[in-house]
Amino acid sequence: MSYDVEKVKPYNSEQPKSEQVIDMFNEIAPKYDKLNGVLSLGIDKYWRKESLKAIRKYKPKQILDIATGTGDFAIMANKILKPDRITATDISVGMMNVGREKVLQNGLQDIIHFERQDCAELTYFENTFDAVTVSFGVRNFEHINMSFKEILRVLKPGGVFIFVELTIPQQPQIKSLYNTYTQYGMPVIAKVLSTEQRAYEYLPESIAAFPQGRDMMLILQENGFTKIRLRRFTLGIATLYIAEKPTE
Q1: Are the C-beta atoms of residues 168 and 236 closer than 8 Å to each other?
Q2: Full 3-state SS string of the chain
Q3: Cα 72 from chain centre
């Protein structure tokens, strides 16, 4: 089964989505952190922090951070969760290169390790990680079901999978303001900051097509996860999903 968001691509309909995502993020990598902070008004840091605090009770020692980008979620995970190792993966080398610099600056190179991986075809053994995390990356997956099955495979029994993703608010007034900002405000800001405008036109398009709420919970269930729950942030602008791999 495929989902509408898998068909939303940054540039054209012919090239595979994963290749276009690589090109897009390699292009915006040098300005990504600054632009992301401006676009979200800094609220994304709160969403990330609350997401990681939600899994402190699992005390994960081996963490896989998928779609790590420039490594912010991995760096924050180290601070909050205190794991032994974080494997930070992405398909964009440009983004990870920025992340490696930040990890070096923070002296975390012995804990956070970057690797290029396709989340639909992970090279890790089964039952390797205590937790798998994704921060604002599932929308960019070319194959959601394949990726979720791979995440389930590499998780240890009882391990936890979390991802936080941008979503559309349900309250009419908030939804109207949100739509106006994402459709008109984001591209204007991107243009002012001299970055690739198409990347921030793709953003609201992919959010609108992304399965949300109960629909996403059912997708997780169909892919083998249990104990699935969600938490909405900031009037529904972002949503955290939490799921576990069944114990054997």
Answers
A1: yes
A2: CCCHHHHCCCCCCCCCHHHHHHHHHHHHHHHHHHHHHHHHCCHHHHHHHHHHHCCHHHCCCEEEEECCCCCHHHHHHHHHHCCCEEEEEECCHHHHHHHHHHHHHCCCCCCEEEEECCCCCCCCCCCCEEEEEEECCHHHCCCHHHHHHHHHHHEEEEEEEEEEEECCCCCHHHHHHHHHHHHHHHHHHHHHCCCCHHHHHHHHHHHHHCCCCHHHHHHHHHCCCEEEEEEEEHHHCEEEEEEECCCC
A3: 11
pLDDT of residue 202: 84
List pLDDT tens digits, range 95-107: 999 999 999 999 9
Q: How far apart are CA 3 and CA 5, in angstroms?
A: 6
Q: What pLDDT shows up at residue 197?
A: 67
Rounded to an integer, what distance in angstroms lies between the CA atom of residue 180 and that of residue 220? 30
* Residues of the chain where predicted confidence (pLDDT) is lower than 50: none
Please state, in angstroms and rounded to a whole number, the distance separating the CA atoms of residues 65 and 50. 16
Tokens representing 207 are: 């959010």
pLDDT at 193: 64
Q: Which tens digits make up the pLDDT trace of 14-51?
A: 899 999 999 989 988 888 887 777 777 789 999 999 99
Q: What is the pTM of this model?
A: 0.95
Please list, residue by residue across 154-167, b when 16 or more beta carbons sit within 10 angstroms of its beta carbon and e when fewer do.
bbbeebbbbbbbbb
The Cα 21–Cα 92 span in angstroms is: 8
Q: Domains of the chain by range and CATH?
A: 4-244 (3.40.50.150)
